[in-house]
Amino acid sequence: MTLFARGQVWRVQLAGKSRAVVIVASDAALDALPGTAVCMVIDETAGAPDTVVTIPMRQPIQGAAVAVDITALTDKRLQAGECLGSVDEVTMDRISAALRVTLDLT
């Protein structure tokens, strides 16, 4: 069993910058394919509007999850970062909907 879970928010180093990401891979995928987690980058600049592909959040950090900014991170990169907490169910539902639109899975 992995220590990562869908909806967790982590602060990690990406391209030399500290960035927050939310894990969007399913818990089943995280367990079945250990070593990598699919994540959505969180914009903390307060510049991302509330749209169908940007989801504002206040907890565990202030920002907006951006569905068009998806990356796969190794477990080592995540573990080198800091877990900030998890998003609530309503936010995760909006993230899921944004991913379906972005990836044409509707």
From TrEMBL:
Domain of life: Bacteria
Annotated InterPro entries: PemK-like, Plasmid_toxin/cell-grow_inhib
Listed SUPFAM superfamilies: Cell growth inhibitor/plasmid maintenance toxic component
Entry keyword set: Toxin-antitoxin system
Pfam families listed in its UniProt record: PemK_toxin
MF terms (GO), sorted A to Z: DNA binding
Family in the record: Belongs to the PemK/MazF family.
Protein's name in the database: Growth inhibitor PemK
Organism: Streptomyces smaragdinus
